[in-house]
């Protein structure tokens, strides 16, 4: 059944497909990726778009970029160092991610 559903979802365009839920991954990670895919993370950018009044919209880590999904997870200078360490630890080389939805 899972294979059938997964094949159906994979045949949809990326904007309509659902995230692949893995039983080997903790549920909170699956939910995080699902929310990321649906642009539902509570970044400052998303809060502003939903009408929440904020004094600043810049990243809390580097204070320079707009606090959105792409910046928080990929483009922030503080996060970039973390990703480099993760890729090194996993012995992965290659081009780094440019957008959060490339996960």
TrEMBL record:
Alphabetized InterPro entries for the sequence: RVT-Znf (IPR026960)
Pfam families named among the record's database cross-references: zf-RVT (PF13966)
Every Reverse transcriptase zinc-binding domain range: 15-83
Protein name (record): Reverse transcriptase zinc-binding domain-containing protein
Species name: Centaurea solstitialis (yellow star-thistle)
């Amino acid at each position: 059944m899972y294979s059938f559903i997964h094949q159906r979802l994979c045949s949809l365009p990326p904007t309509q497909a659902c995230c692949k839920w893995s039983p080997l991954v903790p549920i909170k990670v699956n939910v995080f990726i699902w929310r990321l895919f649906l642009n539902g993370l509570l970044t400052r950018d998303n809060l502003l778009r939903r009408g929440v009044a904020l004094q600043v919209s810049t990243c809390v880590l580097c204070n320079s970029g707009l606090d959105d999904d792409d910046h928080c997870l990929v483009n922030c200078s503080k996060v970039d160092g973390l990703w480099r360490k993760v890729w090194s630890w996993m012995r992965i080389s290659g081009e780094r991610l440019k957008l959060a939805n490339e996960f």
